[in-house]
Amino acid sequence: MTDYAIDPPKPVALPIEGQAAKFPVRRVYCIGRNYAAHAVEMGHDPDKEPPFFFQKNPDNLDPSGDFPYPTQSSDVHHEVEMAVALKSGGTDIAVEDALDHVYGYAVSIDMTRRDLQGEQKKMGRPWEIGKAFERSAPIGPIYSAESTGHPSEGRVELKVNGEVRQEGDLNQMIWKVPEMISYLSKFFELAPGDVILSGTPAGVGPVKKGDEIVAHVEGLADLSVRVT
């Protein structure tokens, strides 16, 4: 006998550096335009905007190292980001307590069907069709905060076929990790297994089949991804 009418989906779990155990994923939150230079390149004034978030699906996180070029798009862009994995949560979390809820960090890429996202923006519609598609968030292993500390500065970089496309520093984030967690917790009840993608520096751009991508966040292992 089973309690389910159909077979339940397989849980989403990510590798943890140095451990056999995996990190179970509950939700994925992504902050938009969190580096000033990227906000400018996307046509916005970073000094006038409060933070905003969109979501990807848990199973969009993909540690395989392969990124299948998605259908229905001819303009897919890379966005390197540091992922923040939570071990606990709650509501109305104080900024000064926010880092107590962090399990660890990973390198990730927010792949975006930019042409489809642009169409939705023009019509004032949600972005999911451009952001939350299959395998749209390549991600590396999670490093525990016990091993890395809580990175607040360090180089963020993405190369395509050996050429630097994106570069910045974690200290250039408009909204820092504790502020993101605190702000999100005012609108959602955060919980263990939640993952936050913390924004991307300037230099986002297109990829094509056959490209080799290397994403870097200082203090974490590089993430290598092939566009297939």
UniProtKB/TrEMBL annotation:
Keyword Hydrolase in record: yes
Pfam families: FAA_hydrolase (PF01557)
Start and end residues of each Fumarylacetoacetase-like C-terminal domain: 28-227
GO molecular-function term, one example from the UniProt record: metal ion binding
Keywords, in A-Z order: Hydrolase, Metal-binding, Pyruvate
Lineage top rank: taxon: Bacteria
Protein name, per record: Fumarylpyruvate hydrolase
Species classification: Bacteria, Pseudomonadati, Pseudomonadota, Alphaproteobacteria, Rhodobacterales
